[in-house]
Amino acid sequence: MSKFNITSARPAVTSPITGEHTPSGVTHQGGAGYARNTKSELFLLAVTNMVGENTFYEPGGKRDERYAQLVGQAALTDPAWTARFLRWLRAEANLRTASLVGAAEFVHARLTTDQPSDQGPSNRSVIDSVLLRADEPGELLAYWTSVHGRNVPKPVKRGIADAVRRLYDERALLKWDSAARGFRMGDVIDLVHPNSDTPAQGELYKHALDKRHNRANPIPESLALLRARAKLTAVPISGRRGLLHADNATEVLREAGMTWESLAGWLQGPLDARAWEAIIPTMGYMALLRNLRNFDEAGVSDGVAEGVAARLADPVQVARSSQLPMRFLSAHRAAPSLRWGHALDKALTASLANVPTLDGRTLILVDTSSSMDSGFSKDGTLKRWDAAAVFGIALGGRCRNAEVVSFSSAHTYLNEPPGPKTKPFAMRKGESLLRSVDRWKSDGYFLGGGTDTPGAIAKHLRPRFHNRLVIITDEQAAGGDVNAVVPDTMPLYTWNLAGYQHGHAPSGSGNRHTFGGLTDAGFRMIPLLEAGRSENWPF
């Protein structure tokens, strides 16, 4: 009788997030906890960590300390991998603060251990690689001096100087130079002494220093944008709104490098409909997304709103914007008008382009325990269970046959018998994703309580019926061992949304794989792994 040459045989595959095969620790709720290797723990923490923000189980300071330690360990053991990761984290994952902090800790670890400079990429190049916006040189300096002191090493200065040459121009000076910042552009120039690529850039540096030191030198002739802004600033406040009614108002604002924030300051008052309509053509994608409520409250015309909606819904612009999927849900909840709904739904769907179409039958368990109520946006309006619901419903909608179930544990906070608390979600064919997420929220699918993952699996998984199990969670299961209740032959895919130290199952080989983050990128691995293709890091 054949033991290996059978129809269910599959090629052995691996995925990048790996850890131990038997649990050596516990989760925060006392379940079996599987430790991961340094790279895997670092990756999951980085792609879920909003630096300085608390989570349910881990204070922000402790998470940041763990992150710095992991970056330091990875920088010493595999500097080339770590450098690629930090660049990807900024350029593709669009997680700005985590990448800046990571680059600083990368360099700090290598300098304090005297690692030979010829091992891996230069410290200078790593600093330069994560600085992609003109306010970021000052941001990195502020982090370094607040954590490691005012003695800034040469590789950090030189990496920042390289970035300054790429990033500092007239528009950047107008947008990002402010007395409200600890390191103004002039301070950065004073400290790192960047070279200039052109005579005009050299004059820009001198002007930034003049601004910083309150010197009343005239703006050089070569800086046309700054001179145009100065001309607008010289217009008396009483006459400024009248200029917005001219046919060329948008072009005048564009030539002066005016943003919507600076326009409000120039007008010395709120933006009315005419002001918004004049500045909207110059606004970037993210600025449009965050101001939909303001457009409605000001009474922006339907014609202008249609143009905004078309830009928001354009898949090319969605991809170029690198917005997290949750930003579209946040905009949807903030905007009172229905005129944005279809565009935001199309944008959200486009931002989830990596969510695959899966054949067979898929069970999707969405963790909505109280720990998933942790916020990951600065204002606390976006929760980890919001992200879990978006990803779970999006995946369910793409599957040929899917059951989507919200789960927690009834007995932790409620006077109910021990066991899982679950609520199956009825998928409706043709329903928009935003409408489904609204229904999830309004119909009580955010359950609260503990995290009885093993109980939810035992209650809903039918091994002879389902082809795979996907769990979207922070992995902090209570009691028992998640891995033990899932048959070895059943593929278990865990989507991690919090990045705690211990996971709830093995990962990296066989039928056990973990992905993570606040974007959809990892979901594309599922069909590839099932097709017998091993997957590596996304960078």
TrEMBL record:
<dbReference type="InterPro" id="IPR040322">
    <property type="entry name" value="TROVE2"/>
</dbReference>
<dbReference type="InterPro" id="IPR036465">
    <property type="entry name" value="vWFA_dom_sf"/>
</dbReference>
<dbReference type="GO" id="GO:0046872">
    <property type="term" value="F:metal ion binding"/>
</dbReference>
<comment type="similarity">
    <text>Belongs to the Ro 60 kDa family.</text>
</comment>
<keyword id="KW-0694">RNA-binding</keyword>
<dbReference type="GO" id="GO:0005737">
    <property type="term" value="C:cytoplasm"/>
</dbReference>
<keyword id="KW-0963">Cytoplasm</keyword>
<dbReference type="InterPro" id="IPR008858">
    <property type="entry name" value="TROVE_dom"/>
</dbReference>
<feature type="domain" description="TROVE">
    <location>
        <begin position="25"/>
        <end position="360"/>
    </location>
</feature>
<feature type="region of interest" description="Disordered">
    <location>
        <begin position="1"/>
        <end position="32"/>
    </location>
</feature>
<dbReference type="GO" id="GO:1990904">
    <property type="term" value="C:ribonucleoprotein complex"/>
</dbReference>
<keyword id="KW-0479">Metal-binding</keyword>
<keyword id="KW-0687">Ribonucleoprotein</keyword>
<dbReference type="InterPro" id="IPR037214">
    <property type="entry name" value="TROVE_dom_sf"/>
</dbReference>
<dbReference type="Pfam" id="PF05731">
    <property type="entry name" value="TROVE"/>
</dbReference>
<protein>
    <submittedName>
        <fullName>TROVE domain-containing protein</fullName>
    </submittedName>
</protein>
<dbReference type="GO" id="GO:0003723">
    <property type="term" value="F:RNA binding"/>
</dbReference>
